[in-house]
Design brief:
Pfam families: DoxX (PF07681). This protein is mainly α and 135 residues long. 71% of the residues lie in helices and 0% in strands. α1 (3-29) packs across α2 (31-40). The two termini are 20 Å apart.
Length: 135
């Protein structure tokens, strides 16, 4: 395994862990409460019932490296939606003690990279589909 593959694997696993943490926290708060928070921010509440499971289960799939490109594509859609609907008005760095979209932008760039790069040798994708990348 070369350096790029190793770094790509580390990025995929760490990003997966971060999404698991975000999804888990949504379940801990209760998706109904997250839905109410989304609505208070002007975002349709039903999206909480999509975002929570996507973050949790999509994060797990990233950690093991299964369907990496497809999961990354879903995260790209979710992150663009989060930036546009909930974070854009706060600015890049936020204001008044609220966070901006800088972290979402970093996550977005990582998921764009993972969608383009596909999986590495240390992934279930490689075991199932071979050649290190999904076709």
């Amino acid at each position: 395994m070369n350096k790029v593959s190793l770094v790509t694997t580390l990025m995929r696993v760490v990003l997966g862990i971060l999404f698991i943490a975000h999804g888990y926290s949504k379940f801990q708060m209760g998706l109904g409460n997250v839905s109410a928070w989304f609505e208070s921010a002007g975002t349709p509440g039903f999206l909480a019932y999509i975002a929570g499971p996507l973050e949790l289960f999509g994060g797990i799939l990233l950690v093991i490296g299964l369907f990496t490109r497809y999961v990354s594509a879903l995260f790209i859609i979710m992150l663009i939606g989060a930036i546009v609907t909930m974070k854009w008005s706060l600015g890049l760095l936020g204001s008044g003690g609220t966070t901006g979209y800088e972290l979402d932008l970093a996550y977005l760039m990582l998921t764009v990279y993972l969608m383009a790069a596909g999986s590495t040798q240390l992934s279930v994708d490689h075991i199932l589909f071979g050649r290190g990348k999904q076709s």
